[in-house]
Design a protein that fits this description.
- It is a single chain.
- This protein is mainly alpha-helical.
- The protein is built from six helices and three strands, in the order H-E-H-E-H-H-H-H-E.
Length: 141
């Protein structure tokens, strides 16, 4: 049976939920912009000492912002644009193409019953999140 994108996303959601996967997408660009803007404003208001104070304050605030907030991977997966879901699908279908199944429930059961398939699909997720989204993965509740 041909695998469709929604079935693969549901499978990834189930797999990541079972493993308790959460991810934090870092926004380093925002943090750097905030640090620079704070230093600039500090310089306008206080001259050279204002640059130092504004830069320090902006740096701390920027670091806090970029620390990332962990969200469940299934939630992130369902919010991905179709083009990004297609990237994940393309990698998963290579692993799933030889399986014989009729619906997403049976596909999920086949994968969850096979440790090797789980490991391969988990590796696809981890690779995608770390390389494409530059996210940090965390396991557990």
């Amino acid at each position: 049976m041909p695998v469709n994108v929604n079935d693969v996303m549901q499978l990834f959601c189930h797999l990541s939920q079972e493993k308790g996967m959460k991810a934090a997408v870092k926004h380093s660009g925002r943090g750097a912009l905030l640090a620079g803007a704070s230093a600039f404003i500090g310089g306008l208001m206080g001259g050279p000492p204002g640059i130092a104070v504004g830069g320090a304050f902006g740096g701390i605030l920027g670091a806090w912002m970029t620390a990332g907030h962990f969200r469940p991977v299934p939630q992130i997966l369902m919010e991905l644009p179709p083009a990004e879901q297609q990237k994940l699908y393309d990698e998963a279908v290579v692993i799933l193409r030889n399986l014989d199944w009729t619906d997403v429930a049976q596909l999920t059961a086949l994968v969850m019953g096979n440790t090797n398939l789980q490991q391969k699909l988990t590796a696809v997720l981890i690779n995608y999140f770390s390389k494409e989204l530059r996210a940090e993965i965390q396991y557990g509740e």
